[in-house]
Amino acid sequence: MFTYNTKGTCSRQIIFDVDEQNKIHNVKFIGGCGGNLQGIARLVEGKDIDEIGDTLKGIKCRNNTSCPDQLSQAIAAYKDRDTGRA
Known about the structure:
The chain has about 90 residues and is of the alpha+beta class. About 40% of the residues lie in helices and about 25% in strands. The protein has helices spanning about 35-45, 50-55, 65-80; strands at about 1-5, 10-20, 25-30. Strands 1-2-3 form a three-stranded antiparallel beta sheet. The longest helix is centred in the last third of the chain and has 14 residues, at about 65-80.
């Protein structure tokens, strides 16, 4: 399970799992707009993390980011965790 602390959004954290085939599972947003974030979580369930990251990156709401954009940043942090670049 990977946990990411969001920046600039109503949600405070994003928690998710990634399987050995780079598919995302069990996405949970802590805080934020419950219905919208449950929808995002269901839409990305079982999808490749590279595809999700590319699709959601750069979506803006307020503070020049959004919950989908923060999920793309969480995926980038997940991918960078072993290299120390996160």
